[in-house]
Design brief:
Elements (H helix, E strand, L loop, with lengths): L1 H13 L11 E4 L6 H12 L4 E4 H8 L4 H7 L3 H15 L2 E4 L3 E3 L4 H9 L4 E4 L5 H12 L9 E8 L6 H9 L11 H13 L2 E2 L5 E2 L13 E3 L5 H18 L1
Parallel strand pairs: 1-2, 5-7, 8-9
Antiparallel strand pairs: 3-6, 4-9, 5-6
Helix pairs in contact: 3-5, 4-8, 5-9, 8-9
Length: 249
């Protein structure tokens, strides 16, 4: 829970401009144990009053009547359940999507301005492409679909309300060709297509880091995703930097 709490706290403290519209903090857990959200809420809610802890299945169940393909695929795919959370979060309100291990340090002009204006979707861009991305580009070319020019990292996104149409997402999920072996994880593939159609912009990769590089110049970063191989840097460098900043405020 600690990583998610630091992520949440960093966004509550370090946005440079007030968000447009309603600001709510929701946490989603992917677990087969139905009691887990309530157990986590007992510790989470005192830290973030008004916040709600949900199961990813809550998002799936909300979307299921209008998205039967998503409903069917979600039972065997954590990626599809993650996609359901993203789609549900942006359906009625602007949404910041941040996975545990992402920290916002401040001086985030690009991100904060987009959150304040509420019009343009933003996303992290991953530093390296692979064969799966080539397969996705070929799928988009064959179907004359717009696609993000940069490789998507969905660990940090800003999504204006309803910028990802549910009907389009359901259509992609129902297409067996998009689910063929060799494509990226299904949530990333569908999001790359939807965000491409929306005209989403990538965050500058020199200041919004999605890499696990150990020699990154953290002092000039606005945000960073500390992935599994860099989790120790979250504790050794990321959290202490935020702590010093908060103490100086």
């Amino acid at each position: 829970m600690a990583d998610a709490a630091w992520t949440a706290r960093s966004f509550l403290h370090r946005l440079d401009r007030a968000p447009a519209g309603r600001l709510a903090l929701d946490r989603y857990l992917d677990s087969p144990e139905p009691e887990l959200p309530a157990k986590v809420a007992d510790r989470w809610t005192p830290l973030f009053p008004g916040s709600v802890v949900y199961s990813t299945w809550d998002a799936v169940n909300k979307l299921a009547p209008a998205m039967p393909a998503l409903d069917a695929l979600s039972h065997d795919s954590a990626a599809v359940r993650r996609l359901a959370v993203v789609l549900h979060a942006q359906e009625a309100d602007n949404a910041i999507v941040a996975e545990p291990g992402v920290l916002l340090f401040g001086n985030s002009i690009e991100f904060s301005d987009a959150v304040h204006d509420g019009k343009t979707a933003l996303h992290l861009q991953s530093p390296a492409a692979d064969a799966a991305d080539a397969a996705l580009r070929e799928y988009a070319r064959q179907h004359s679909l717009p696609l993000l020019a940069e490789r998507l990292d969905s660990a940090l996104m800003f999504l204006p309300r309803a910028c990802l149409p549910l009907a389009a997402a359901e259509g992609f999920l129902a297409d067996r060709r998009l689910r063929d072996t060799g494509l990226p994880p299904l949530d990333r593939a569908v999001l790359a297509l939807l965000l491409g159609a929306h005209g989403a912009r990538p965050l500058p990769p020199d200041r919004y880091l999605a890499s696990d590089a150990r020699n990154a110049n953290d002092a000039r970063l606005a945000a960073r995703r500390f992935g599994p191989s860099a989790r120790h840097l979250l504790y050794a460098r990321g959290m202490p930097r935020l702590w010093r900043t908060w103490n100086d405020e």
